[in-house]
Amino acid sequence: MTGSDLVMHEEEFRRVDAELQKLHQQSNAKVVFLVDKNGQLIASVGETHEIDTTSLASLTAGNIAATGGIAKLLGEREFTILFHEGEKDNIHISLIGQRIILVVIFDKRSSLGLVRLRVKKAAETLGKIFEEITQKVEKEKGEGKLEESIFAEISDEDIDNLFR
Amino acid sequence: MSFINYSSREINCKIVYYGPGLCGKTTNLQYIYRRTNPGQKGKLISLATETERTLFFDFLPLALGDIRGFKIRFHLYTVPGQVFYAASRKLILKGVDGVIFVADSQIERMDSNMESLEDLTINLAEQGYELEKLPFAMQYNKRDLPNLIPVADLDNVLNLRKVPWFEAVAVTGKGVFETLKAVAKQVLFELKKHY
Description:
The complex is a heterodimer. Chain A has four helices and six strands. By secondary structure, chain A is α+β, with helices and mostly antiparallel strands. Chain A has a single domain, classed as 2-Layer Sandwich (Beta-Lactamase). In chain A, helix 1 (about 10-25) runs antiparallel to helix 3. The radius of gyration of chain A is 18 Å and the shape is globular. Chain A starts with 5 loop residues before the first strand and ends with a helix. Chain B is an alpha/beta fold. Chain B has one domain (about 5-195): Rossmann fold (3-Layer(aba) Sandwich), CATH 3.40.50. Chain B has five helices and eight strands, in the order ββαβββαβαβαβα. Chain B has helices spanning about 25-35, 85-90, 110-125, 150-160, 175-195; strands spanning about 5, 10-20, 45-50, 55-65, 70-80, 100-105, 135-140, 165. Chains A and B meet through strand 1, helix 1, helix 2 and helix 4 of A and strand 1, strand 4, strand 5, helix 2 and helix 5 of B. Strand 1 of chain A pairs parallel with strand 1 (about 5) of chain B.
């Protein structure tokens, strides 16, 4: 398989979550979330209860993918920031380290300038965390097994049960 | 590229339905959507044209249940089948864990099936995947229509790797879950190999 799977343990998740909490506060945002470039939601903070975050994650990734396609056609490597302005809410989408998408939804309590500034800072930290995660996965993959493999005992029956 | 989250105890995998225009990819997703409990599924998102042709993709998140305390989630995507949406079709394959090829069983669609399969191989290669190594299943759809290609012929031409194949009538649901299950199984066993 190309690239590596994303494996996140409790400790890394807490670091990511803490960084998102910080960004959420400092940027006065409504919602902040992180999505894998393939559309999987990684983490979210803020007023998420009224938002379908799974769908949002998949569409955001689609959006980034389409924009990436446009960039290529124009000879750009990537457009790293997308911004959509609405009547009430705005959405700021940025690409971190070619792999992770950081999404900030904000309203008039904040401003584009503030969001951009805070996102830039958070992106550096998050970029580092995910670099470490990737390295760790590669290392563990090389060594064979993750410490507490849940897959070792998966059987046909387990999978049949999913489809019952 | 799966996402294994030990913190929320979730495993997320991406499965893509591929095939020529009007072969029934979206219909597969619609049937799965109708037949799953509300608690197990998210919204079915369709980015389609006014004539209900898929423009970018359809998306359906499914949480089928637990294995050893981990919630197994499948994200199902379809690609736009029409030839001129090639650029967007490519994008959907990013990070795919398993592919279902939906073939149209009608005689006059055989060329389109072959063309689409070729297109799949090329697009996967561009993303660095080899179709031969990916969890994969074949669905021979529209078996209820007249003027069909015999399954053996479809299989000879399209299924060179001899992956699991299923006869289907996606509108009534025949073969829909069987095909999904065959790929889901391969995806999970693939993870087992690595972790």
